[in-house]
Specification:
30% of the residues lie in helices and 22% in strands. The protein is globular, with a radius of gyration of 16 Å. Strand 1 and strand 2 form a beta hairpin. It is α+β, with helices and mostly antiparallel strands and 203 residues long. It has a single domain, classed as Glutaredoxin (3-Layer(aba) Sandwich), CATH 3.40.30. The longest helix has 16 residues. The chain has a 7-stranded mixed beta sheet with strand order 1-2-9-8-5-6-7. Strands 3-4 form a two-stranded antiparallel ribbon. The chain has 5 helices and 9 strands; from the N terminus they run H-E-E-E-E-E-H-E-H-E-H-E-E-H.
Length: 203
């Protein structure tokens, strides 16, 4: 498959199959953003999970360069500092309707699992950061999740995120094992069963 066509296939997978919110569509003023550090475009990079086809399994784990984002105090946090056996990394924004719809299920997912086993990390693309994210957390009644913030689309670009919501499942070494590029019920039986299956492989 020609390279340009391959890239369009990935874009369709990431954004065209659902009413996504583009990171570039953030209505707030954009600062300069770094270029993508590692491409994830490959038509044979993923296979659908047999039990939860919404989840796309990596045919081989993908490692990323060291990447940082901001915590609730706007201090840098390195992704590879996470000690959980699995990290469910969700890219979202308050201006993205489908993102907000799935956030309560992510909160419930974290309540279900010990953070040492599965850590749910919701990474906001809101450039106003706490000013808009913290009121949303309070209004939505999110008690299990912690607010984290992405600067200048940096991690979105590193991981080739084309649309929000987009969720990447990482192992303890920070390698991508799977990806979900549509809104999902993360506390539903299919999602929970999928994550339990991945978690069992980490032991």
């Amino acid at each position: 498959m020609p390279r340009k066509l391959s890239q369009w296939v990935l874009i369709a997978l990431s954004a065209g199959l659902y009413a996504s919110c583009s990171p570039e569509g953030n209505p707030e003023p954009e600062n300069s953003a770094p270029e993508t550090m590692q491409s994830v475009a490959a038509e044979d990079a993923f296979s659908p999970d047999s039990d939860w086809p919404l989840a796309m399994l990596r045919n081989a784990p993908v490692a990323y360069p060291p990447s940082a984002f901001l915590d609730a105090d706007l201090q840098p946090v390195w992704l590879n500092e996470r000690n959980a056996k699995l990290t469910v990394l969700n890219f979202w924004a308050t201006w993205c309707g489908p993102c907000k719809e799935e956030m309560p299920s992510l909160d419930a997912l974290q309540a279900r699992f010990d953070p040492k086993d599965i850590y749910v990390l919701t990474l906001s693309n809101d450039r106003k950061g706490p000013e808009v994210v913290l009121p949303y957390f309070e209004k939505a009644g999110l008690t299990q999740l912690k607010p984290y913030y992405e600067e200048n689309l940096s991690l979105s670009r590193v991981m080739g995120v084309q649309g929000y919501p987009n969720t990447v499942v990482l192992d303890q070494e920070g390698r991508e094992l799977a990806r979900v590029v549509k809104p999902a019920d993360w506390n539903g039986p299919e999602a929970v069963g999928f994550l339990e299956k991945l978690l069992a492989l980490q032991n």
